[in-house]
Amino acid sequence: MAQKPGIPKGTRDFSPSEVQKRNYIFGIVRKHFETFGFQPIETPSFENSETLMGKYGDEGDRLIFKILNSGDYLKKVDEATYVAKDTGKMTPKISEKALRYDLTVPFARYVVMHQNEIDFPFKRYQIQPVWRADRPQKGRFREFFQCDADVVGANSLLQEVELVQLYDAVFTNLKLEGATIKMNNRKILSGIAEVIGAHDLLIDFTVALDKLDKIGEEGVKKEMSERGLTAQAIAKVEPLFSLSGSNLEQLQALKKMLQDSEIGTKGVKELQFIIETVEELGLQSANLAIDVTLARGLNYYTGAIFEVAAPKGVKMGSIGGGGRYDDLTGIFGLKDVSGVGISFGLDRIYLVLEELNLFPQEIEQSLQVLCLNFGEKESQAALKLVTELRKNGIKADLYPSSAKINKQFKYANNRNVPYVISIGSQELQNGEFTVKNMQSGEQVNYALSTPKDFIENL
Amino acid sequence: MAQKPGIPKGTRDFSPSEVQKRNYIFGIVRKHFETFGFQPIETPSFENSETLMGKYGDEGDRLIFKILNSGDYLKKVDEATYVAKDTGKMTPKISEKALRYDLTVPFARYVVMHQNEIDFPFKRYQIQPVWRADRPQKGRFREFFQCDADVVGANSLLQEVELVQLYDAVFTNLKLEGATIKMNNRKILSGIAEVIGAHDLLIDFTVALDKLDKIGEEGVKKEMSERGLTAQAIAKVEPLFSLSGSNLEQLQALKKMLQDSEIGTKGVKELQFIIETVEELGLQSANLAIDVTLARGLNYYTGAIFEVAAPKGVKMGSIGGGGRYDDLTGIFGLKDVSGVGISFGLDRIYLVLEELNLFPQEIEQSLQVLCLNFGEKESQAALKLVTELRKNGIKADLYPSSAKINKQFKYANNRNVPYVISIGSQELQNGEFTVKNMQSGEQVNYALSTPKDFIENL
Fold it and tell me: What span is annotated as the signal peptide, if there is one (chains A, B) (predicted)?
């Protein structure tokens, strides 16, 4: 019996219209990556397991897809491990490769392996799929694309300025106006923890603070208390819950609050430089806003932290994020290489563009011209015309069989074709072809010998 | 100690210049796929194992990369299987997903799953990586891209004609002139076997015949004899070794030889129709040649067989291939859907373009303008200018730190940048910027207030 076909959960087939829309986004992201001087690299879909394992925490290790060794994969398993049936010990013996979990670790591996070929500072972008054995849910998939741009080997804050401009350029080009680029700085978070005397509770503090939007001021205070912050510490942090006003007003408040913390003061200065420089240069359609509750990737970032929110009114998690990390390549033996980067959340950007109806109509037009097929002799003339149209870059096709004309028109309608050409016996005799505008219904005849007349009117 | 990083054997990192060259090829292939009316789809990197296993023969099954189940993967293994240590029985219990081995089986699965959404005839293209646990060797990788275009649900030979034109359009656009599209027909091969009375030895016959180029006429005869063909059968096949002349002359010879075979005569007629129609329409730069030794994918194709050879003088295996298969989707329960398709061999086309020096020079130019960095104040003016250049679509960058100017120039040279801009304190005072043409050494000043003057000269 034939198999009933399906695909693994958490994965997706993409239809022609979906692929075209995704490629539209990729194309715009890629274009701006390149005008900003980023260069593309690509890395293998699977890496040696030791490259990936241990880099994303225990949870990450569990979510990495492992590839079974080829051939007699049990032969490397010693008897004791086999008898113990301990998958934790067995896995590294039967699987030595694993699917990429993100683009950052492979990039770090790439930089170290190719350090002698690379001209630093190295601005690279990478647009490739990653895989995670996460529980699939709405908007979360086991295979999805990441679009990352990172600079390594440059400490200047001008990089952060450029990355804000890059977000702005891409979202403006996508006509996604009003996105908010939220910024924070890991040093500010450290400074706050220091000032409130809860240095060792920084992670607890920021995890709780990050929930301000979700659980409100009282909720955050309660959680901070449960996580071991003293009442005194929480009182000192109180002004943060009501930080408001312009970016510069917020910076003043932060500066005052953190005046006794060296690292905090440094963080405020960095943030101030970035914000002032961006404001001086001007953004096209995005907003830049300080958000001291922003604490993503805490264990990872050491300076700027970015996150992008969709325009107001669109319910959607962040559509981009990033930050600076001071030691990207240390795990692979290359010390003191600072990196800063951002990424674009393709799947969510897609959903936002869909919701706001921002995909250009042309994307759905996979075929501009369909020639009807009236039989063998007529179709030869039609194919000649189609060949000429294609040489002029027009997406054109000949219906492959002389099916009933109704059926052929139905196909043209389904494929959303704007022009349908007929070359029947009468047209052939007259040396003509008839073009029907499918929207207006209007029909125009052209000479088969001068298809240019039609092409120029397209 | 830090890990010494490496990548799995048979996989590759792609540097910026390699990615750009590959994207150049993909871009041209994609453009022509679309002008010929093909629509893109994408399928998941891994499929359920049952979708792939058993579709490529025993050898194929062995070469499919299997993904280990997540979590406690041993729990589905029964005690008897575990004790027997039989990987053949164990594998399906600990691994339920596998990496795509080609694009054809996933396409067939896609067509069946989505048959109610698809408007037939369905012309799809797909450009995605595939994975094979093959022994790596020169030009053979464990991860590589396939670029396939197929039509399903159309029996007309006009499809074959179009596919020849498609090859011609792509290779012409790549400036790869003189490629030879070799054609045969599975029905001709069947006819030959019938005429020589070796019907049951068709596979042996064609495998031997396919080696004519490599081992010569005597070698083929010897191998045919070893494979069980009688001397009489081999004598009858003799004229095939010296088939020559124009396509039409060869067709005449084949027609005569196969006049008593119904299927063979049908094959010659099909081939003749395709060749005559293509010749009537004309090719731009490729040649079309009958090759009765062409027998690729014998178990698979039922009509036309294509294979493309690089231009004469380039030593390289086939750079493309394809054919017609009458029952693509039957394995998944959808009967009587005929398909015909071709694919482009990206890696080999890349090597041929490299050998013939056919990649356009602009590809290597990842940055058009580099602004030197003379310090904080100057760099702010520079960033303003760079922002303006980027808004005009120019690939421009500001060197991220005020390093020694020699070092900055060296970076510009390494990245092959044609224009270097200086805004030092003097220029800043004069409200100017200096553009150095790195090839001619010529320097020109422009006003910072009118960057358009420079942009228009680019």
Answer: none
Owner of token pair 């859907």: B337
Burial class (CB in 10 A: 0-12, 13-18, 19+), A316: middle
Share of chain B above pLDDT 70, in %: 99
Strand, coil or helix: B290: strand
B409-450 pLDDT tens trace: 999 999 999 999 999 999 999 999 999 999 999 999 999 999
Write out chain A residues lying below 8 Å of B401, CB-based: 154-156
Domain range summary for chain A, segments of one domain joined by +: 13-179+310-364, 186-287, 366-457
| CB-CB neighbors (< 8 A) of B32 in chain A | 390
Nearest chain B residue (CA) to A157 = B400
- Across residues A218-245, what is the average pLDDT? 86
What is the homologous superfamily of the domain B13-179+310-364 according to CATH?
Bira Bifunctional Protein; Domain 2 (3.30.930.10)
Question: CA-to-CA distance for A192 and A199, rounded, in angstroms?
Answer: 9
* Res A194 pLDDT > 70: yes
Task: Write out the E strands in B161-200.
Answer: 180-185
Average pLDDT score over residue span B52-58: 91
Residue with tokens 């060869």: B250
CA distances from A381 to A127, A351, A375, A418, A422 (A): 43, 44, 10, 21, 11
Q: Do A395 and B37 touch (CB under 8 A)?
A: yes
Q: What element of type H or E holds B124?
A: strand B122-131
**Residue in B76, B146, B372, B390 to test binding to A, most A beta-carbons within 10 Å:** B390
B162-184 pLDDT, tens digit per residue, is 999 999 999 999 999 999 999 99
Q: Sheet containing B443-447: give its strands across.
A: B396-398, B369-371, B419-422, B432-437, B443-447
Task: Choose the mutation target among B19, B83, B364 for the interface with A, i.e. most A CBs under 10 Å.
Answer: B19
Query: Which residues on chain A are in Cβ contact (under 8 Å) with B384?
Result: 280-281
Predicted confidence at residue B3, as pLDDT, reads 65
Query: Going by DSSP bridges, is the β-strand pair B369-371/B396-398 parallel, antiparallel, or unpaired?
Result: parallel
Question: Could you tell me which residues come within 8 angstroms of residue B289 by beta carbon, excluding any fewer than 6 positions away?
Answer: B180, B181, B182, B183, B247
Interface check for A151 against chain B (CB to CB < 8 A): the answer is: yes
- Kindly state whether B169 is in contact with chain A, defined as any CB-CB distance less than 8 angstroms: yes
> Which of A4, A19, A47, A327 is the mutation pick for testing B, counting most B CBs within 10 A?
A19
Q: Which two tokens stand for residue A130?
A: 């990653």
From B287's Cα to the closest Cα of chain A, the distance in A is 17
Please list every residue in chain A whose beta carbon sits closer than 8 Å to the beta carbon of residue B99.
45, 67
Structure tokens at B397: 């960058």
Say if residues A307 and A293 touch (Cβ distance below 8 Å).
no
CATH class of B366-457: alpha beta
| B129 upstream amide cis, omega within 30 of 0 | no
